[in-house]
Amino acid sequence: MSQRSAPDRTVWVVIAIVTGIALLFIPFSRFVLNVNYDYTLSTVAVGGALLGIVAGVLGCFAVLRRESLMGDALSHAALPGVGVAFLIAGRDLGVLLLGAGIASWLGVLVIQAITRTTRIKQDAAMGIVLATWFAAGIALLAFIQSVPDARQAGLKKFIFGQAAAMVQSDVQLVAIVAIVMGIVLTLLWKEFKLITFDLEFATANGFRTGLLNALLSTMIVIAIVLGLQLAGVILMVGLLIAPGIAARQWTHRLDQMVILAAVFGAFSGAVGGIISGVDNTIPTGPMIIIIAFTLVMLSLAIAPQRGLLWVVLRTRSDRRRFAAQTTLRDMYRYALSHQNARHPIPVAFIRGITGSQGVTGLKQLEAQGLAARENDAYRLTPAGVQAAASDEANQRLWDVYREYSHALDLPQVNEDRQKDIRDVLPAGAVDRLQQTLEGTHA
Amino acid sequence: MANPQRPPALLVDDLTVAYNSRPALWDVDLEVPEGVLMAIVGPNGAGKSTLIKAVLNLIPRSAGSALFYGKPYEKARSLVGYVPQRGSVDWDFPTSVIDVVTMGLYGQLGWLRRPGRRERALAMHALEQVGMASFADRQISQLSGGQQQRTFLARALVQDAQIYFMDEPFAAVDAVTERAIVDILRELRARGKTVLVVHHDLQTVEEYFDWVALLNVEIIASGPVSTTFTPDYLRRTYGGRVSALADSAAVVGGD
To answer: ipTM of this predicted complex?
Structure first.
């Protein structure tokens, strides 16, 4: 149980830290950076946080379904839709996003058609559509800008995103979508989890997987399209996948991953929005991505178990521990072969059989008081002899476990011979192994 | 073995499946009586997995039908358990062993309802059956191949189905896991279940199974192992290229 609850707690600690930083950021920015939280900036902060939550949550599924690249193609493909919608209906956010969504869907349909009917693979098909659609979008925006019309001012901001363009009604729209998606996700949680893990099994179990798949994909598309005005078509994929990737490092549970991704997304969206909102010359998209990927880098480096830092440290301590254990064993056997557990063992012998590992091992054993140096030899201390003997007994019990666990009907555990078998198996099981051991040697 | 009053556990009729207008299965007829352990054997590309998937409506059929205890699949879902190939999923998915096993109950729970204490207890029981109880809270990314396979098996056991379809459960597992799977198969048979297993190892067919279907796009033969797993039928299935056949054939021929 303790194994389960420790990582469970980690996630809440991380959430508390991120929330704490976010809360500290407000007074920090106000007094140190002289940020004035007026109406516009508050809107940007709230809108950015909400969009970050939506993108982060749905992004988890995009990452787990291996659709990160599809997300990138989708967001690039949205640009011509923005242009066409503007030409038809003018600068109304709802209409622009609708146009973006339609263009994205068309892009996906074309990708699927190419993959199905030609020998072109999906990644190449996505590349084709992404580039073509984006080029068409750029051309369309250039055309629109050549026409003198004051309303087209905000349009270019769809490329890199501009949080300052957000108004209160935009935030309301995002809030409604976020609530609806939250409800759908809660109600269909186990279904979405199942189709993401094992689509075939879900189908065989009678779930309407076609429908569920379409629903989940549509929600991912909506998250992308909504985020366009904040992060822009080029970098939207970053806001989509970065929170999920960062969150994945901290937990092995889908529910925790999604919650943590929401927090990371909100943090990136809000802080990125505020920073670029203070100075309009900084586009929001790059700002958000810098923050989001800082979170990814930090997570990759320091997350427990998976983090690179821990991997390096663990590898080092493992190497020392294994070296000490091996050397102790070698020394004990050598000494016993001279009929005395405390027989001195020449350094040359230890060097000779295990090389540098032996040297490392000797240092460890000496530090732990299990061996002591005497001129050109080492001698096991009484504690060392005891440790070696109990290790030997432990290994013998593991041998018996491997051979007889099935016959004795013992619980199946991972055979981790570095651990004391008494810590792994229940007491009764070890007693029976001991009896078997004595029986086989009697 | 089959009760004439009861419909067979599985009745496949004129099943044809085609990929890009090349048939993967051709006009397959198959009748599986209740309570048998059946191996589906045949060379690579013979359509063994395709047969299971087509029967379970996972891929479209060009023609034909499949009846489970006389009922079409839509009406027989609760009778059917499925163990996909373990390579078909991402084992780095963020979830635990017991969670995966509980997924076997999602179908019975239906829409909107969440698994609770009862489901956890059932999943735990299934894990005990496959000898994985102490792994319940383990992350699935930490499992060995054999443990993955047993987790999948537990997920199917928890469904308490009448007829099980297993896609290569013996592929790349160690001897201990193979033993454990065989024990479970036998226990299922003892409880009157029917089990169909896509199998690769001809050497163990006679030891593990009592029923066999020889498949190479078409059904070459199906029936009791003693009368069906013969050198003649095997040669017609594999084209006499497999050296392992010689041993198997010698055993059968020696009778």
So the answer is: 0.88
